Amino acid sequence: MNWAFTSSGNVTETYAAGLLREMLEIPSSSYQERALAHYLAVAMADLGFQAHIDAVGNVIGVIERGAGPTLMLLGHMDTVPGQFPVRSEDGRLYGRGAVDAKGPLAAMICAAAGAVDFPGRIVVIGVVEEETPRSRGAMAIRATHDRPDALIIGEPSGWSSVVLGYKGKLDLRYTVRVPATHPSNPVPKASELAVACWDALVDLLGPDAGHGAFDRPGATLSRLNGDLTKASADLSVRVPPGFDVGGLVRALRERLPAGDLEVLNSVAACRVGRADPTVRALVSGIRRLHAQPRLVVKTATSDMNTLAEVWDVPMATYGPGDSGLDHADDEHIVLSDYLRGIDVLTVAISELAHLPANPGGRVGEALQSVRSLR
């Protein structure tokens, strides 16, 4: 028997903890995921996956066990910048990406490897560039892969919670140049115009806007550079379901006396219901561990948004880890929660084995759906 597995076919706790630690030891900030992708391709091959790295750098592992349904488990390899020493302390494992989102991805790999009775196809994917505006990894997956029968996105939800949906996101860049002039000249300077663009966005969103509620938009001034003659600003807006993104962009452009406003990326909000089969499967796993499941929505955005735009399939987001530690200088995961997350995913995979395999949803249909949204 492979030393990574228990007698029941599940991945051992020692192997699972070691896998995550090795992943944390490999820096993988956005655009720098290659080393981690190569490590995971080898690790998944050792666990019985058919593994490869695709054209954009995503690592993909496939286990074929019959003609049953196809289940996709997708997490991201990239992290925000700021690597710090990996260490274990008081049952916690510290390191950049421990919760966002190497912990959830490692849990998916371990659970899928141990799903020896799954009668269909399991696809585990670590994507690149989720922490960037364009989500290039997930965009490539939806364009090149057949629609699965069910999808789990790996993000930190907390081991006993399931995420039903996320706000959408609109990323804008404002750039402006004006002739050189004396600082005391009353004409607007480039830096002032950039600030005025931000003020106009906040005004258009209204006094109730903010990041504290799922049903209201919230804006962030992500970057601001400028002087008297040239300036640029990156603006990010999290939007609820049904929000008129096009109307906001048009209204903001009408308020700008100079400069250019570029839409860098736009992805719609997404939300599934409590009766979604993937949600029910994850809830079953949490209850199997004698916990009361929490169903939540998030005011951030994930690759669930990107894939939900073209794949109308059962889906939910799940992963061990406290999302309050995303991007934090003391980012860490409680190892017992990580192991519980593997157990929850193991049960969920077993539950989803009963889904009917869907012969539709081929790549051509997905691409047609993308065109219809434009």
Q: Reading side by side through the largest sheet, how are the strands ordered?
A: 1-2-6-3-7-15
From the N-terminal CA to the C-terminal CA, the straight-line distance is 52 Å
Determine and state the CATH class of the largest domain: Alpha Beta
Q: Percent helix among the residues?
A: 25-40%
Number of strands: 16
Explain the overall architecture.
- The chain is of the alpha/beta class.
- The protein folds into two domains: 13-166 and 269-373, Aminopeptidase (3-Layer(aba) Sandwich), CATH 3.40.630.10; 168-267, Alpha-Beta Plaits (2-Layer Sandwich).
- The protein contains ten helices and 16 strands.
- The strands form four sheets. A six-stranded mixed β-sheet has the order 1-2-6-3-7-15, sandwiched between helices. The protein has a four-stranded antiparallel β-sheet with strand order 10-11-9-12, with helices on one face.
- Strand 1 and strand 2 (59-64) form a beta hairpin.
- The radius of gyration is 22 Å and the shape is elongated.
- The model is unreliable at 360-374 (pLDDT under 50).
